[in-house]
Amino acid sequence: PAVLEGFVNFTAEVSVIAARSPSGEVACFDPGENVHRDGILHTTTVPARLSAAQRMDAVLLAAKILNALDYVGVLGVELFVTRQGFIVNEIAPRVHNSGHWTQNGCAVDQFEQHIRAVAGWPLGDGSRYADVVMENLIGDDMDRVPELAKQRDTALHLYGKADVKPGRKMGHVNIVKRPS
Fold it and tell me: End-to-end distance of the chain based on CA atoms, in angstroms?
């Protein structure tokens, strides 16, 4: 846990994955709601449980940070949700674990968006076409892979790490709920 977490009365943590091109074009993915276990991201659920106004405020805040930094590429912005609004918890200058849901929930994911941004190409459409729960596979969670592989609308992303260790991210799974 970060130092700030002990002093802030927050109801949730959300992340906005955002990209900015050299020309200043900005594109943001929908905010995801994060749950941590033992200080490690366990799940990110999209859409986050935010009002439409909160979603807009979170996206605008992420865009403001990108522009203020004159940043090029993908940036992960973690926000505490409080009764008074948002407090920035972390800024990660890279593709981010909480954005892995984009691999199966958007036509253009955070990885492609990063390449587009740093190459100076037009940013892609990061609109979400499905609700997604991303779950990190940590340590012995790898024992669940055969069962997870049987589940419909579940995409496994394994990192190819040889040694399974407690607390080590071994991969993630995206559970996709497509609109009916």
Answer: 38
Helix (H, G, I), strand (E, B) or coil at 35: strand
The DSSP letter of residue 97 is: G
Length of the chain: 180
Kind plus residue range of the DSSP H or E element containing 76: strand 73-82
CATH number for region 9-177: 3.30.470.20
Q: Which helix (H) or strand (E) holds 96?
A: none
- Cβ atoms of 98 and 78 within 8 Å: the answer is yes
Q: Has this prediction a pTM greater than 0.90?
A: yes
Residue range 52-73, pLDDT digits in tens: 999 999 999 999 999 999 999 9
The tens digit of pLDDT for each residue in 122-165 reads: 999 999 999 999 999 999 999 999 999 999 999 999 999 999 99
Q: Distance between CA 8 and CA 133 in Å, rounded?
A: 26
The CA distance from 99 to 124, in Å, is: 15
Query: From CA 18, how far away is CA 102, in angstroms rounded?
Result: 12
Q: Where are the domains of the chain?
A: 9-177
Please list the alpha-helical segments (H only) found in the chain: 52-69, 102-105, 110-119, 145-150
